[in-house]
C-alpha cells in the first residue's frame, strides 16, 4: 500500500498518576497497591524552574524547538533524533542543520513506518539513551498506537521498575492549518490521555515549546509531545537563549479574572484570548488557563479558579474536555453557578473546504461565555 504525504506551502509561509500538581517537573509513574494510579517523585531529579530574566532572541516556534533539540544533542552524547526526513530538516524544518553538526549516526532518517519508529525508540530508550522520535504528522501516529499504549506506557510496570523506556519522547505536529483536511489537521491528543504511564504535553508559544520540550526529553517517563503546526512560523516571541525547562503537570494562569474560567491548550489559546478581549467590552472578566500538560493535568489550579469564578468553559479541539468537565463538576459542584460548557470541533471527520465551520472560533467561544455568565 502506498501512502502519500503532503507538504503544505502555506504552512511553511505562515508567519498511575495523581491528577494534580507534582512536586517537580519529573516523576516516575509507578503501580500502587490499593489505588488505580499513583505518582512517585524521582529523588535524583532536579526541579524544573521557570525561565529567569536572561538573554533572549526573538524567534518563532519551529526555531525554538530546533534550539531545544540542539541543546539536548549538544549536552547529552546519548541522545538521538530520528524520523521521516529529519535528516534534511523535516517538513516543518524543526531539525534543520542538526545532522550536519551532530552526524548521521545521531540524527537520521527512518523508513515510512510509524510503528517501527516508536518501536525503535522504545528499544533505544530502554538501553539508557534519550530517544527523540518524530512523527511527521500527528494524524499518522495511529499505526504506532500499539507501541505507545501497549509497550512504552507499560514498560516500567511490567518489570516492577527493573527496566523502563523513560528516555523516549515522541514529537508530532498536530492541529488545523486551514486546508489540511482529513489526514493533516487532526488533534489526536485525547486518545493518549486515557493511558497511565505516559505524559502528554502541548505548548502554546515558542518559549513554552523550548522549555516544555527540554523538560519532556529529560523526564523519566515516556512523553508524547504535540506541537501546534499552525504556530510553527506564526507565533514569534522572545525566547531565552540558554538551557531552561518549564515544569510538567503545572498549568499556567495566562489571564486573571473573576466571572468565568476558560481552560485550553496549544494553538486554541490564541483564539480564547481574543474571545476574552471581546467579552471584556461587555464587562465580563475571564480567567484563562493553559494546561500545558494534559496528563497528569493540574487539577488543583483549575479547581481553585473555578471555586473563585463559579463557571467553567473548556473550549478544546479534542475529547479531553470531558475529563475536565467531569472532574471539576465532581469537586466544585457546590460552587458552580452554571453547567460546565465545552466548545469543540464537530463530531465528523475533519473537513477540507468547510474547515472554518468545524473549528472552535472566537464567536463560538464568545457565545458560550455569554450563555454561561447569563445562565
From TrEMBL:
CDD domains: TPP_PYR_E1-PDHc-beta_like. It is an enzyme of class 1 (oxidoreductase). InterPro entries: THDP-binding, Transketo_C/PFOR_II, Transketolase-like_Pyr-bd, Transketolase_C. Keywords: Oxidoreductase. Its EC number is 1.2.4.4. This is 3-methyl-2-oxobutanoate dehydrogenase (2-methylpropanoyl-transferring). It comes from Physcomitrium patens. Residues 59-234 form the Transketolase-like pyrimidine-binding domain. The keyword Methyltransferase does not apply. Its cofactor is thiamine diphosphate. It catalyses: N(6)-[(R)-lipoyl]-L-lysyl-[protein] + 3-methyl-2-oxobutanoate + H(+) = N(6)-[(R)-S(8)-2-methylpropanoyldihydrolipoyl]-L-lysyl-[protein] + CO2. The keyword Oxidoreductase applies. GO terms for molecular function: branched-chain 2-oxo acid dehydrogenase activity. Pfam families: Transket_pyr (PF02779), Transketolase_C (PF02780).
Amino acid at each position: 500500500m502506498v501512502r502519500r504525504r503532503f507538504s503544505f506551502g502555506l504552512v511553511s509561509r505562515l508567519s498511575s498518576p495523581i491528577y494534580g500538581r507534582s512536586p517537580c517537573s519529573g516523576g516516575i509513574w509507578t503501580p500502587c497497591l490499593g489505588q488505580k494510579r499513583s505518582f512517585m517523585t524521582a529523588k535524583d531529579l532536579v526541579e524544573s524552574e521557570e525561565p529567569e530574566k536572561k538573554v533572549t532572541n526573538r524567534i518563532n516556534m519551529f526555531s525554538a524547538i530546533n534550539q531545544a533539540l540542539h541543546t539536548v544533542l549538544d549536552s547529552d552524547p546519548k541522545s538521538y533524533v530520528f524520523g521521516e526526513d529529519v535528516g534534511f530538516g523535516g517538513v516543518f524544518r524543526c531539525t534543520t542543520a542538526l545532522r550536519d553538526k551532530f552526524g548521521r549516526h545521531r540524527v537520521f532518517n527512518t523508513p515510512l513506518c510509524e510503528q517501527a519508529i516508536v518501536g525503535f525508540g522504545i528499544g533505544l530508550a530502554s538501553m539508557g539513551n534519550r530517544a527523540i522520535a518524530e512523527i511527521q504528522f500527528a494524524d499518522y501516529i495511529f499505526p504506532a498506537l500499539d507501541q505507545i499504549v501497549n509497550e512504552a506506557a507499560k514498560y516500567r510496570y511490567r518489570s516492577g521498575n527493573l527496566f523502563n523506556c523513560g528516555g523516549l519522547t515522541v514529537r508530532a505536529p498536530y492541529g488545523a492549518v486551514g486546508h489540511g483536511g482529513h489526514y493533516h489537521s487532526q488533534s489526536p491528543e485525547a486518545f493518549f490521555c486515557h493511558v497511565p504511564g505516559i505524559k502528554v504535553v502541548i505548548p502554546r508559544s515558542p518559549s513554552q515549546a523550548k522549555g516544555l520540550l527540554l523538560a519532556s526529553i529529560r523526564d523519566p517517563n515516556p512523553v508524547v509531545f504535540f506541537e501546534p503546526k499552525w504556530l510553527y512560523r506564526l507565533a514569534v516571541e522572545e525566547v531565552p537563549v540558554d538551557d531552561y525547562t518549564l515544569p510538567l503537570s503545572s498549568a499556567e494562569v495566562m489571564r486573571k479574572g473573576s466571572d468565568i474560567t476558560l481552560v485550553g491548550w496549544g494553538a486554541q489559546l490564541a483564539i480564547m484570548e481574543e474571545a476574552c478581549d471581546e467579552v471584556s467590552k461587555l464587562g465580563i472578566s475571564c480567567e484563562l488557563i493553559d494546561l500545558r500538560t494534559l496528563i497528569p493535568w493540574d487539577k488543583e489550579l483549575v479547581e481553585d479558579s473555578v471555586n473563585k469564578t463559579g463557571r467553567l468553559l473548556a473550549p478544546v479541539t479534542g475529547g479531553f474536555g470531558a475529563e475536565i468537565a467531569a472532574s471539576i463538576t465532581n469537586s466544585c459542584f457546590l460552587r458552580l453557578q452554571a453547567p460546565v460548557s465545552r466548545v469543540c470541533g464537530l463530531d465528523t471527520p475533519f473537513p477540507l473546504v468547510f474547515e472554518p465551520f468545524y473549528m472552535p472560533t472566537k464567536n463560538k467561544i464568545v457565545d458560550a461565555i455569554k450563555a454561561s455568565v447569563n445562565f
